[in-house]
Design brief:
Helix content is about 45%, strand content about 10%. The protein is an alpha/beta fold and about 270 residues long. The protein has one domain: Rossmann fold. Helix 1 packs parallel to helix 10 (about 230-250). It is globular. The termini are far apart. Keywords: Coiled coil, Kinase, Transferase. It comes from Deinococcus puniceus. This is Polyphosphate kinase. One of its GO terms (molecular function) is polyphosphate kinase activity.
Length: about 270
Amino acid sequence: MNTDQYRVKSGQKVSLKDWATDDDGGYDKEESKILLDSLEAELAEWQERLYAEGKQALLIVLQARDAGGKDGTVKHVFGAFNPNGVQISNFKVPSEEELAHDFLWRIHAKAPRRGVIGVFNRSHYEDVLVTRVHSLIDDRTAKHRLEHIQNFEAMLIDGGTQIIKFYLHISPDEQKDRLQERLDDPNKHWKFSENDLAERAKWPQYTAAYEEALSTSTKDSPWYVIPADHKWFRDLLISRILLDRLKAMDSQYPAVEFDPKKIKIPKI
């Protein structure tokens, strides 16, 4: 699978209309499931290596519009990992305490420690997306915040944390279907908010804000635009990208200072 075609190149100006939302990579649903099952064992192994080594961390950023599939990705992709080595952080509307600090204060506190895979379900990018669309900050402030974000991510990388960022790219029609599904299924009513419709009405404004945010992609902190109309391909593609990155990190089990062959465990 050629995952590089979904990566935003460093310095590339993003126009989301150029990225398909319904791409399936040439796979069908059943084939994708078989491939995903085979990837899960490898993902688990390389996560264990990362955890055992304890020298590196991996931060995964998930961003999407409402009903874009962030929670589903967490469930179906990161479910392959040992929960002991995964930290999921959700960033909602800032509290009074958080607003009293700089916008990255609450984010830095949730950065994963070495040995851990951290997942940001929404992230520091919300502060240049929602705030911008709702005119809580102006263009100048947004530009400065994006610069601060790039510097913040560079600092994390210098400290041993690798970063991958995923934008789950869905179409307006797919979002409509998913929101309707939440209305039709009583078990999903809790997922629906009337505010979702107000945000949906701002689709063009969010598109412009996302395009600028995605254009900050770098070699060391890349954005991937993930076609997410097909949930099964979304999960397969993200899993493949994660496995490639974990393999590239090449975490090793730590050496021990004893000879296991010489140790005998006594009977009790």
